């Protein structure tokens, strides 16, 4: 994986993803507001029927209370129609939601007025709007519903107690009209509304977070399924490629031993052989990624493995024009799978060499850490890792290099996860350091 070239489509993909998320959120808000409108109409109709058939039963039809109830419901229908027409245009869904909350609390205040005033059971409708506000607009909707309920309910209470508004003249129910009579009902009702609004807002936020986590988990599962399919395809192709690749490498080796080749022909043979080896490494990486096996844990000298890998790198590929050095402990025994750890060291070193300019130095070290464990570090002098690529650095098949595959680091991460070890990455314009951290429990000596 090349650390020096940024992915040109990363910013565009992020912008597109953000735009899609915003559009989806707006559509969800519009749907919830539309449902809120339909629910209001249903509740208005139901409450009108309850007032007419139960609360005002036996009273003369056409009285003040009946007329007020019908006018309140008619106003609710009219406002619902206007807001629904605006909502159909697909704009201002969130603003319409806020307006609906305020209008609902005003309508419920009208019902509270004609059904007993401060002590009316209709106060519970304020709580219904708090719940709906939380569902439609989350915590802000619940807070707005509670705030407007306090204002409207408090204003009605003060108006009745101060005789600014008189009880309905056709009512036989006794209204509480003094501060001593309304103190406890007001306190109890507002306390209950505060609890309902707080819980509704909290649950709405938790639901939003859980829904986001679920969507993220679903996206990751889909991506994992796609990667698994790619892995199976890659494994199949790798098996098919390896056989003819071995024939090509063997034929080139025989051809190089021919005495009739010119210097130019030998150079061409070396190029073919080098590229065949690189292709063989790629095939090996794909096979390693596709056939995960549990590590065979045993006492392993990590320092010896690192030195062997450094020696191998010096004699192959770009190891001839990049200086590869080992420094650190002569012996470092850890509990791990020797073959898999060799693969980790080789992939990290090969990655570091591939991003280093000619004449640069790649340093490999194995040392005891301050926490009592062991660290394997590979440092290159490349151009560093672009910020936008770091979160996907160990994703399979992700690469910022035109001729890379993004397999080597994915293999490294899988092996270290199987061992229960971690890897840290530090990068700047002066280079990048990958550090494998072996915990104290796996560091023998």
SSE map:
Layout: H1 10-55, H2 64-87, H3 93-114, H4 124-161, H5 179-256, H6 263-290, E1 298-301, H7 302-314, E2 323-328, E3 333-336, H8 338-355, E4 361-368, E5 374-380, H9 408-419, E6 422-428, E7 431-438
Parallel strand pairs: 2-4
Antiparallel strand pairs: 1-3, 4-5, 5-7, 6-7
Helix pairs in contact: 1-2, 1-3, 1-4, 2-3, 3-4, 4-5, 5-6, 6-9, 7-8, 8-9
Total number of beta strands: 7
- What is the percent of helical residues? 55-70%
Mean pLDDT: 79
Structural class label: alpha+beta
Unreliable residue runs: 1-24
Strand % is 5-15%
Task: Note the gap between the termini.
Answer: 33 Å
Task: List the strand order in the largest sheet.
Answer: 2-4-5-7-6
Over the alpha carbons, how many angstroms does the gyration radius reach? 36 Å
- General form: elongated
Domain count: the total is 3
Notable characteristics:
445 residues; alpha+beta; Helix Hairpins; 3 domains; 9 helices
Short overview:
The chain is built from 9 helices and 7 strands; from the N terminus they run H-H-H-H-H-H-E-H-E-E-H-E-E-H-E-E.
What report would you give on this structure?
The protein is α+β, with helices and mostly antiparallel strands and 445 residues long. It has three domains: 13-221, no CATH class; 222-290, Helix Hairpins (Orthogonal Bundle); 298-442, Heat Shock Protein 90. The chain is 63% helix and 10% strand. It is built from nine helices and seven strands. The chain has helices at 10-55, 64-87, 93-114, 124-161, 179-256, 263-290, 302-314, 338-355, 408-419, and strands spanning 298-301, 323-328, 333-336, 361-368, 374-380, 422-428, 431-438. The strands form two sheets. The chain has a five-stranded mixed sheet with strand order 2-4-5-7-6, covered by helices on one side. A two-stranded antiparallel sheet has the order 1-3. A hairpin with a 5-residue loop joins strand 4 and strand 5. Helix 2 runs antiparallel to helix 3 (93-114), helix 6 packs across helix 9 (408-419) and helix 7 (302-314) crosses helix 8. It starts with 9 loop residues before the first helix and ends in a 7-residue tail after the last strand. 32% of the residues are buried.
């Amino acid at each position: 994986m090349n650390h020096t070239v940024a992915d040109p489509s990363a910013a565009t993909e992020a912008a597109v993803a953000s735009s899609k998320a915003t559009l989806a959120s707006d559509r969800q808000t519009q749907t919830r507001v539309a449902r809120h409108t339909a629910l209001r109409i249903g509740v208005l109709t139901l409450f009108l029927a309850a007032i007419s058939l139960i609360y005002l039963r036996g009273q003369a039809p056409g009285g003040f209370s009946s007329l007020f109830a019908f006018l309140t419901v008619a106003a609710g229908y009219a406002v619902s129609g206007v807001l629904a027409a605006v909502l159909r245009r697909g704009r201002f869904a969130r603003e319409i939601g806020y307006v609906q909350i305020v209008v609902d609390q005003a309508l419920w205040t009208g019902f509270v007025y004609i059904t007993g005033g401060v002590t009316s059971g209709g106060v519970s409708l304020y709580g219904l709007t708090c719940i709906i506000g939380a569902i439609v607009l989350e915590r802000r909707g619940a807070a707005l519903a509670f705030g407007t309920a306090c204002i409207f309910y408090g204003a009605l209470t003060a108006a009745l107690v101060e005789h600014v508004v008189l009880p309905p003249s056709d009512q036989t129910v006794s209204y509480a009209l003094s501060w001593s009579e309304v103190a406890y009902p007001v306190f109890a009702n507002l306390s209950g509304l505060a609890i309902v609004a707080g819980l509704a807002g909290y649950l709405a936020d938790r639901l939003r977070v859980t829904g986001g986590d679920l969507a993220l988990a679903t996206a990751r599962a889909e991506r994992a399924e796609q990667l698994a399919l790619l892995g199976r395809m890659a494994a199949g192709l790798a098996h098919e490629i390896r056989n003819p690749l071995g024939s090509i490498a063997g034929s080139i080796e025989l051809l190089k031993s021919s005495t009739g080749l010119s210097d130019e022909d030998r150079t061409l043979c070396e190029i073919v052989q080098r590229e065949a080896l690189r292709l063989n490494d790629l095939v090996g990486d794909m096979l390693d990624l596709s056939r995960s096996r549990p590590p065979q844990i045993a006492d392993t000298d990590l320092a010896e493995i690192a030195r062997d890998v450094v020696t191998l790198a010096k004699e192959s590929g770009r190891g001839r024009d990049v200086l590869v050095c080992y420094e650190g402990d002569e012996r470092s025994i850890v509990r791990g799978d020797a073959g898999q750890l060799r693969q980790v060291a080789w992939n990290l070193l090969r990655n570091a060499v591939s991003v280093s300019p000619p004449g640069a130095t790649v340093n490999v070290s194995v040392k005891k850490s301050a926490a009592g464990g062991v660290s394997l570090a590979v440092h290159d002098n490349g151009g560093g890792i672009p910020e936008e690529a770091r979160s996907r650095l160990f994703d399979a098949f992700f690469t910022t290099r035109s001729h890379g595959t993004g397999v080597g680091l994915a293999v490294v991460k899988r092996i270290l996860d199987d061992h229960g070890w971690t890897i840290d990455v530090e990068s700047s314009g002066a280079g990048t350091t990958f550090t494998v951290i072996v915990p104290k429990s796996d560091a023998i000596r």
